[in-house]
Predict the 3D structure of the following.
Amino acid sequence: MAHSGLSFESDMQELIIQDLHVSIADQEIIRGLSLSVPRGEVHAIMGPNGSGKSTLAKVLAGHPDYIVTAGSVTMDGENILELEPDERARRGLFLAFQYPSEIPGVTIANFLRAAVQSRMPEGEELEATDYYAQLYKKMDLLEMDRSFTSRSVNEGFSGGEKKRNEILQMALLEPKYAVLDETDSGLDIDALKVVSKGVNSLRGPDLGVLLITHYQRLLNYIVPDRVHVMVRGRIEMSGGKDLALQLEEKGYDWVKDDIDEPTLA
Amino acid sequence: MVQENKSLEIERNIGDFAYPETHTHDAGIGLTEKTIHYISDVKQDPDWVREFRLKAYRTFLSKPMPTHWASRDLEAIVFDNIRYYLSGGIQPKRTWEEVPDDVKRTFERLGIPEQERKFLAGVEAQFDSEAVYSNIKKAVGEQGVIFVGSADGLKEHPEIFRKWFGKVIPTGDNKFSALNSAVFSGGSFIYVPPGVKVKHPLQAYFRINAENFGQFERTLIICDEGSELTYMEGCTAPKFNTATLHSAVVELVAMKGAKIQYITVQNWSNNVFNLVTKRGLAHEEAEVKWIDCNIGSRLTMKYPGVVMKGRKARGEVISIALAGDGQHQDTGAKMVHAADETTSNIISKSISIGTGRATYRGLVHVPKHLKNCKNNTECDALLINSHSRTDTYPAITVRGTGNAVQHEASVSQVSAEQIFYMQQRGLSKAQAMSLSVNGFVNDLVRQFPMEYSVELKRLIELEMEGSVG
Amino acid sequence: MSNPSALLEEIAETALAPGRILGGGAARNEDLPAWFREQQSAAWTEFQTLPMPALKDQAWRFSNVQALDLAPYTLPVSLSDRAERDLLERSTELSEIAGRLVFADDHFLERDVLSEKLRAAGVIFQPLERAMIEHEDLFRRHFMTQPATLGSAKFAALHQALVRSGTFLYVPRGIEVELPLETFHWLHSENVAIFPHTLLVAEEFSKVTLVEHFRSADRSRAGFSCGVNDLVVGPGAKVNYVCTQDWSDRALGIQINATTVARDASAFNLYLNLGGKFSRLESLSRLIGEGGRSDMLAVSVGDGAQEFDARTLQDHACAHTYSDLLFKNALYDRARTTFGGLIRVEPHAHFTDAYQKVRNLLLSDDAEANSMPGLEILADNVKCSHGATSGQLDEEQMFYLLARGISAAVARELLVGGFLTEVLERLPAPALIVRLEELIADKFARRSR
């Protein structure tokens, strides 16, 4: 996994995390995590509660509460750890939040418009008709009612609506890498199917996806290329999609037992 | 992002310029009975007005500063350093051609578009303290609407003017209404005849253009039975080094079934003391609505009021205040229910940024033996960063079994999680903040006419750009 | 003192001869320690210096300041044995208590002893005049340390100048007093002035409930009570304080409270106001440690020409503190209330939650409610709200009850009772709630007679 500056550009189309250490309030939560997600692939991260999965998602997006004490994260060869959250986003990183924020008074239409506009070159104005055409196309894909756009962002939304809204934004903003943090939590089976359909429709050679989940069931709908198991702030095991099934069968303890490390006694 | 700030900064400075002072009438600095006589002489006041001014001057002297409840910052006003009257020595003009060139330039710098000027039903622009330009749309005149400067109003229409002048707001209402009554000049007088519904809003722009110069305009609007009017007042002021006093009095009279909507966007520069008394009198089934937006000034104290004197009268105050660094927006509303079945509504939203302070003061009075009166008050405050401050001081009196009054207030802030979420979607911190703040006031901004609400949003954005690192 | 002189006359005399309060002609407090009498003398000077409240004072806005005329009131003399016996008999409210103190016209009458166990644990529950001698250091550390900032500085000075009895309650670290402690203050003689004082100090992790009853011996007699109750709630301690005020409808009452809440402590104040011609409560909760919580509750039922005046301050001086105020007033006849309340969140008191709610029920055309809820927020990350409503009984609810055959009078009583119960129900002591509801029912019964 060593990347030198001499790599070909095709080799650079990857999100690479190397030996990442992250703390919050003096407590180390991510302890030397390495992982790489090439574009065109879907990688799942599974792990028990408290393993640091959600922290990883927020750190990638640049949440100010977390301090990166060591390691690097590069996106298509560029170090993103020094960038502001919005700069990372505009370079093509998308985070679907586990708990999306409510923004009273700001409609989805206005919010997304501002987000799309922020990705356009200086001085170029977003054409309203193009924007709405795009937006409605994506909404149809996610089986969303048009009236949705005039509601305030996430305010009073059900769990399912919030998650659908996240995927809608992902569809519209067309990121290079998407991190989906527990996107299946709080969804019933019907909503899960719709959200999965939305994610699957976005899969393609230009998009790398990091799917963070506690449960295996999401992986029945969004089939990953690779599965990684995260325990106590590290990737402890990686494998193909079958690994998820093994986990389902044997539980996370199986992985824990498998780790022969004195500190985990 | 830097470029964006820059382009906005240029607009921000639009109000920051001044022209050589060429005033032919100048009352000098300070206030004595001589000053009052000087103003009356220059304005060729009728005797009763001169008497009114002198009496008001004595009332002004006898009234203490309201610092037992108001900000001590008021003590920074030195009445002896203020110029109380200044006139371009030119009469109000009706056509664009007759408007002096430097005044035209002022309008251009303000960015009032040509077509808007034409669109406006009538423009009453106050340049310094005298109305120098007024263009009343022909149609309005034909409907019998009187729209003149207050100086002309009191001379040409004394039968209507005298009947209501100083009746809604008595001279002694407060120290600053007394001051205005002593030295007033400029402002508008509007009379709308019975049943006339004025389609386009009448509009006035006010500017201050002389250092240490107070502006004391006086506006009186009377809407006769069943008539309707929207009036818009907006101000920007050039920036000066020393404090400036603006102390206006606005009286509205809505006769039976009439509707008056008075809209203000206040954006004085940060050295102005803006101490304004505004009150409306609503007769039976009449409606008075104040839409008030305060963005500028050093200290604003303004509590638009409605006295609901007739059955089923309605009063409403919609207020937005933005208190940036060093500013104190002390605003609110007064609702006096004086007849059965009267209803009032107050919605106030304030945003405090940096060292800014926003205060809400409200008075709701429902006296004895009134039936089925209702008041609803909502005030919400948004705080941005830890130096800002917000206060709410309503006073509500209710008597009797038929009346219902409800007051609610809340304080909240834009949370860090909210900002992070928006940043993750690609918005800069400042954009995220401005979007949140606009979201907070959105439902109120919608109440403003289109051109004002766009301007308002832009003003809020400008304030936010400066406030986020 | 054989002939009670008018309070103000005496005041005039003492002004000429300051020794008098200290043990001169009035002989009032000569049994008290010299340091205490010196403080009283200083307080007296302060009382004389401070101006009488006026309507234009923001802290007295809407108040009927004419009611504050002190000329008629006299200092108490001792009671007859019969009167004492009678009042002692009537001094029962709660059936299960840990201890009781009874005062009439500022004289300490009796004490129901604390259990041996509590005494051994170091709990002190005794009259002020003994505490200041037996526990001088402790007493002096906490006595009158909070200035009255809500308008009654003058009356606080008067109180300190003339106080001679009251309650000292001290609960040592970690001690939990399960049953409530109870006190009674009686106004007995016509036009008598009393100065009830309560000082409650709860040390770290202790727990205690104090219930005070303010009563008139004769509902037809006038009188003046000028009281101070200070609650000092130590870290992690929990204090419940309930005051039931049922003076005669001719009495003037001023009660000044200061509650200080330390880290992780919880203070719970409830004032039930039923009597008095003019009765004012000034209540200050100061939250000075993280995790501190203060609940401030009041219920007032006014009729005739009664006036209830309440001024409150929720003062958040520290981050991560919580306060919640709920005052409800039911007003009949010409009754009047004024509520002036402020939530102040001081700079750096971030992450504060503060709530304030006043609800007025106007039950007659002449009833009047003035509300001045206030917020002063100088910190960030706060959640604050206040609400004030004034309205009537819900007509639909009334109709529903009438349709079930309930008479209008009873229906009204039920609905008013329900309106008030929402406050009482917050009390963490069910037995007390029942008793408070009975007191309210007594007031309703008095009305219907």
User: Anything to note?
Assistant: Chain C is about 25% helix and 35% strand. Chain C has two domains: 34-392, 393-449.
